[in-house]
Amino acid sequence: MPRGRYSLHDPHDHTPLAEEHFQCAPGPTGWRYVSQLTTPTGEHSGSVDLTLDDLGRPIRLELHAGGWQVRGAALDGVTWVRADPAGTDATEGNVRAHAFTGTSPAFLVATTRLLRLTPSSSATRVRLVTFTEPVLAPRTVDQSWALVDREAHATDNGPLLVDEYQVTALDTGEQHTVHIAGDVVLSAPGIELEDLESPPSRFD
Length: 204
Description:
Elements: E1 3-9, E2 16-27, E3 30-38, E4 44-53, E5 58-65, E6 68-74, E7 78-83, E8 90-95, E9 99-101, H1 105-115, E10 124-132, E11 137-153, E12 160-169, E13 175-181, E14 184-188, E15 191-196
Parallel strand pairs: 9-10
Antiparallel strand pairs: 1-2, 1-15, 2-3, 3-4, 4-5, 5-6, 6-7, 7-8, 10-11, 11-12, 12-13, 13-14, 14-15
């Protein structure tokens, strides 16, 4: 069960945004990721709880940020309910999309589990619903993912496979690179793995 800490920063000017303390593990039905977020000054700022099924589909998502809350799942595409800090107003949304995304590294791992790309696969288009901080406002995005390299690195626990993905935002054409080992993001724009207490889990 990997447990560790990511630092999140603005990918353009590198302003520190938060630290995400996480743990994740595959289970009998898929994969689960839970985390708590703190501001650079150490104050609690939100949480992520994401569960995937064996096919990589989100069967449960719960986000908290800025007093706002989102609960969602894969249902007729993806469906969610967003509640305001006062708890007096809840809005339901539904989009014909494949899954969710957001600032948490969990969503990068989740997308790779959904797509199951191989180095010989062509680039694959995916439609995702992202929830923007700090009010968790929903927005639909289209991306293209390609697995461009897979390298084995020797470790004390056996070879560690590191996958390099090229991700393209289809609305702007902007490209970036994501490196993932098992269920841990090693590097991505705005994300740095600062601490890892145990090796990444290996997916079959």
